[in-house]
């Protein structure tokens, strides 16, 4: 049935076969180059999913950490024509994290800490957030503040939120503001966070953006 559709130039059937070659399923030996070839052919025949996936998979095959993370996202959500496959998403996020993707570490932190799609493991979740945070991932740094706050360690929470606020994350500034209101942070800490946040935002502004604003655009 599939072969007949392929022989007739059915883009989606060709795309489907490429997926099976990539994963070595349906009795086919895993053959990434063949998969890319089929996805490319499907894309040329009009399959948008195949076009995007072919590009992603080719770079995945070359060890592109960000694209491996992107592929994991697709598996997790079941997009680009891929069936939702959480175990494969976790596997791909793990691979991406091992070769340097901070976003993958952050994603794994969330999945493990909250048991989202995988068995809950707070320690492993925190481990992944730490790995990303120490390498500059602002969202993971904020999450460490959340964890400290949840466990009542407000001093540590302020330390983490302070770092991410000074990196320009408004949510972290707001957390320190709320902690100040609740008596868990002092005025000096809130002031320091506010100044650091403003400096970070100012530093991130581009001359082009300011020029556009001056001319009346981006309103």
TrEMBL record:
<dbReference type="Pfam" id="PF08238">
    <property type="entry name" value="Sel1"/>
</dbReference>
<protein>
    <submittedName>
        <fullName>Uncharacterized protein</fullName>
    </submittedName>
</protein>
<comment type="similarity">
    <text>Belongs to the sel-1 family.</text>
</comment>
<dbReference type="InterPro" id="IPR050767">
    <property type="entry name" value="Sel1_AlgK"/>
</dbReference>
<dbReference type="InterPro" id="IPR011990">
    <property type="entry name" value="TPR-like_helical_dom_sf"/>
</dbReference>
<dbReference type="InterPro" id="IPR006597">
    <property type="entry name" value="Sel1-like"/>
</dbReference>
């Amino acid at each position: 049935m599939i072969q007949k559709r392929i022989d007739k130039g059915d883009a989606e059937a060709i795309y489907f076969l490429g997926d099976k070659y990539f994963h070595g399923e349906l009795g086919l030996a895993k053959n990434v180059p063949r998969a890319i070839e089929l996805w490319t052919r499907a894309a040329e025949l009009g399959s948008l999913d195949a076009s995007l996936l072919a590009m992603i998979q080719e770079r995945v095959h070359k060890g592109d950490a960000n694209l491996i993370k992107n592929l994991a996202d697709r598996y997790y959500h079941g997009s680009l024509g891929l069936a939702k496959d959480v175990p494969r998403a976790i596997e791909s996020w793990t691979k991406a994290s091992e070769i340097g993707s901070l976003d993958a570490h952050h994603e794994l932190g969330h999945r493990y800490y909250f048991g989202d799609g995988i068995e809950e493991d707070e320690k492993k979740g925190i481990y992944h957030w730490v790995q990303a945070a120490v390498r500059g991932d602002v969202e993971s740094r904020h999450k460490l503040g959340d964890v400290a706050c949840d466990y009542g360690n407000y001093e540590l929470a302020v330390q983490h939120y302070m770092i991410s606020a000074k990196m320009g994350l408004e949510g972290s500034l707001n957390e320190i503001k709320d902690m100040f209101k609740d008596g868990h942070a002092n005025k000096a800490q809130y002031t320091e966070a506010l100044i650091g946040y403003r400096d970070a935002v100012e530093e991130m502004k581009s001359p082009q953006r300011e020029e556009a604003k001056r001319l009346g655009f981006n309103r």
